């Protein structure tokens, strides 16, 4: 078993992590998925992740992270808190403190268990939402810490780190997963799959990126 060919993808069933999944499938021989259940606003997120895992024939680990909600209830985990963008340099209220720190740590512990060297996450600094744990410097720092903690040489990959949303759609297209991701994934804060509710900040971001990419693609074809 060559652990250099084995990978774990942090997977939410959304556009970004599904794009990462297809990237990982091109790059590695053996890919497993890990999804964190932290009482997301929409339990449907877990169902979508499960369905995609089954369709792609991949082993899927679902880990209970409800302690995160116990510590820090926020707009992603509570129906009674409305999703809002941050104002004047404040963090948006969708920020869950420590989320990526915990998720990547648990994903790496899982990687150790299944003898995988590579961990893939869809975090991105380009459309910077204000989440400090999506920054490249944080991921690199955590990668070093994880390796020191287990005396290993894990590599945390962030294929979307420097892509904007339009470029992420283009990337999905290059991976021949554009239609699949467009139809199957769930990004919307209101739990509407594919094109989404069209109203929430996640839908606006996704749709703007899609429109930009489609304009470019159609421009090239004409
Ligand atoms: Zn929406």
| Largest sheet: number of strands, sense, barrel closure | 5 strands, parallel
Could you say which small molecules are bound to this protein?
zinc ion
Provide the CATH topology. Answer: Rossmann fold
Low-pLDDT segments, ≥5 res: none
Query: What is the SS-derived class?
Result: alpha/beta
User: What separation lies between the terminal Cα atoms?
Assistant: 48 Å
Order of strands, widest sheet: 3-2-1-4-5
> What portion of residues is helical?
40-55%
CATH-level-2 architecture: 3-Layer(aba) Sandwich
Strand content: 5-15%
Round the mean pLDDT to the nearest integer and report it.
90
Radius of gyration: 17 Å
Number of domains: 1
Number of strands: 5
InterPro entries: QueC, Rossmann-like_a/b/a_fold
Keywords: ATP-binding, Ligase, Metal-binding, Nucleotide-binding, Queuosine biosynthesis, Zinc
Pathway: Purine metabolism; 7-cyano-7-deazaguanine biosynthesis
Function: Catalyzes the ATP-dependent conversion of 7-carboxy-7-deazaguanine (CDG) to 7-cyano-7-deazaguanine (preQ(0)).
How would you portray this structure in words?
- One of its GO terms (biological process) is tRNA queuosine(34) biosynthetic process.
- The chain has helices spanning 15-27, 44-55, 66-71, 99-113, 136-150, 165-174, 178-184, 201-221, and strands at 6-10, 30-37, 60-64, 118-120, 155-157.
- It is an alpha/beta fold.
- The chain has a single domain, classed as HUPs (Rossmann fold, 3-Layer(aba) Sandwich).
- A five-stranded parallel beta sheet has the order 3-2-1-4-5, sandwiched between helices.
- α2 links the parallel β2 and β3 (60-64).
- The longest helix is centred in the C-terminal third of the chain and has 21 residues, at 201-221.
- The termini are far apart.
- 35% of the residues are buried.
- The structure holds zinc ion.
- Residues 188-190, 192, 196-197, 199-200, 202-203 line the site of zinc ion.
